[in-house]
Amino acid sequence: MSGIYLHIPFCKQACSYCDFYFVTRTSEREHFVQQLLEEIQNYADTPYAVETVETIYFGGGTPSLLEPRQVEKIMKALQQSFQIEAREITFEMNPDDVSEPFLGDLKSLGVNRASMGVQSFDPDLLDFMHRAHSSGEALHCLELLSKSRFESYTVDLIYGNPNQSEEQLETDLDKLLLFNPPHVSAYSLTIEPRTRLGKQVELGRIAPPKDDKVAAHFDIVNQRLAEQGIERYEVSNYCRSGCEAVHNSNYWEHQNYLGLGPGAHSFWWDETAVRWENEADLRSYLRNEDTKETEQLTLQQLAEERLMMGLRTREGIAIDELEKKYDYQFSERQKEYLDNRQQEEKLKADKRIRLTDKGIKIADAIILDLVTLY
Ligand code: SF4
Hints:
Elements: E1 2-8, H1 29-42, E2 52-60, H2 68-81, E3 83-93, H3 100-108, E4 113-119, H4 123-128, H5 135-147, E5 152-159, H6 166-177, E6 183-188, H7 196-202, H8 211-227, E7 231-234, E8 237-239, H9 246-252, E9 256-260, E10 265-269, E11 273-278, H10 282-286, E12 292-297, H11 299-311, E13 317-318, H12 319-326, H13 332-343, E14 347-349, E15 352-355, H14 357-360, H15 363-372
Parallel strand pairs: 1-2, 1-9, 2-3, 3-4, 4-5, 5-6
Antiparallel strand pairs: 6-8, 7-8, 10-11, 11-12, 13-15, 14-15
Helix pairs in contact: 1-2, 6-8, 11-15
The protein binds iron/sulfur cluster.
């Protein structure tokens, strides 16, 4: 089983926090689609096309800047080149692009999961994040989605903004929860150096959010979503039972996937494990001159990755899996570290290691400590 990720590298404008690869030259969409079709066709009759494709994910950038006829061509090319038996086809969209006919067209093309980038309903915060949509568009879009025939949908939310009060976060959650979403991805705002926000922080114009404020926001998000039966299953992902994202869960378990489009990553593990990245440059991609950066991964690297990804999830990681699949045994120093964190009630370790609610808040620190103690 494998997955396919398609990177659609266009955005109307640059959100202030975003360091994904995208361009705002949307006039190149048609040419991009032609090139993407060629990239898909080049995989036909290769070993990568033999495994059944379980999930397809249109991400970006902003996939909803594509027209349905372009999505149709992409879907047809995928079907011609791969063994598609997709149980989940996710399509990322922004509220300002969505209409009822657009959702209907995507549904009839096989998309069964919408991923809506709302981030906030607060006009000031939307402005601060330089989002292209308004609060009203986000609400309208959620109304359309909740009435749509998609099997599932997810909403992205950002908390921990430097200017965001707890009241503003509560109001965002009030508005979101009225729609009873099956899945929510809630991220704390990260300050990336190459972004507009990163530059403002560097120049001292904005103070980055304080850790205790971010932790308080995290608690509010957890509590409010859990009260409505939307439980956390990964540090940033929450859902009703049975609505977990299959595509992302497969990443965390090292399932094979191909990434298509500029800047997309792929991971393939058969006899050896290899990760490669398409060059993040649309011009090179369109001229068919892009290069791929390939990295071969050792079992030790894979084990550490699995440990990191597993500890971020509710399921944690089975010690047995680490030993059998990755030939990884904890060192004495790691065992001692695990015992100490267990006494502090930050994790539970028996046959599996799972972080507790207390531990999940400092997941990154625990993971880093554990890996470096090997
Ligand atoms: S957050 Fe999404 S819409 Fe905004 S710039 Fe990044 S990819 Fe584009």
